[in-house]
Amino acid sequence: MFGKLIAHKKALRKAKVESQYLYQHIVQNARNPQFYRPPFYVEDTVEGRFELILIHLFIVDFWLSKSEQTVLLRRALQEILITDMDRSLREMGIGDMSVGKQMKKVGAALLGRLQSYKLIFETTDEDQSSESRISEIISRNIGGLKRIEHSDALAKYFVTQVAAVATSDPDNWQTGDEVFTVANWTNEVLTTQNSEGIS
Q1: Residue 168 half-sphere exposure, CB side, CA atoms within 13 Å?
Q2: How many domains, the chain?
Q3: Which of 22-26, 38-42, 144-148, 172-176 bottoms out in mean pLDDT, i.e. has the lowest?
Q4: Segments in 65-95 forming alpha helices (H)
């Protein structure tokens, strides 16, 4: 019994360390200036940055969900986001009473986005592609995307990253490799759009 308890504690510590590493990558990528310029046009606001964090959190969470060995890591990753959002709200000067209400919204948004995105990637739709279905969700939840090609561009990036992360080796993340490939991917999109005359 004590052996199992010790093993569980070690697994918890390992999950916390790995989740910190992954969360840093998620936040760092969500703050990439390229998301707030063409072709994405996400508004550089608290809400816009939060939605980008949720997108990148899902990309990692969806990949981790394929293994029964990552339950603790997934849970730790979500807990870090909640803790970070709570800290951010307090740093913005929001009082305890208001923080509680805002955190309920954060929790609802987290669960809602994870479930909505997961449903799209786990089901097929003969009338709509994954990109178009994600684009619809993005256009509803992220401000500043005034034209359909803006949400389409982010949806295309989203689907591309889900596929890329799914084939990556998590051990490489622990040695400093990038989790996401936003820079190279965005350059390709910009080149394509410029050649087509889209702005």
Answers
A1: 22
A2: 1
A3: 172-176
A4: 71-91
Joined together, the tokens standing for residue 179 give 């989790």
Which token pair is 40?
Answer: 């994405």
Burial 134-159 (b: 16+ CB within 10 A, else e): bbbbbbebbeebeeebbbbbbbbbbb
Q: Is 198 a domain residue? A: no
Whole-angstrom Cα distance, residue 124 to residue 199? Answer: 31
DSSP string covering 27-70: HHHHT-GGGGSTTT----SHHHHHHHHHHHHHHHHHHHTT-GGG
DSSP 156-193: HHHHHHHHHHHTS-HHHHTTT--S--HHHHHHHHHHHH
- 97-140 pLDDT per residue, tens: 899 899 999 999 999 999 999 999 999 887 889 999 999 999 88
**190 is a domain residue:** no
Residue 6 lies in a domain: yes
Domain that residue 104 falls in: 2-185
Q: If you ran DSSP here, which 8-state letter would residue 197 be given?
A: T
Q: According to the model, what pLDDT value does residue 166 have?
A: 81
**Residue 159, in any domain of the structure:** yes
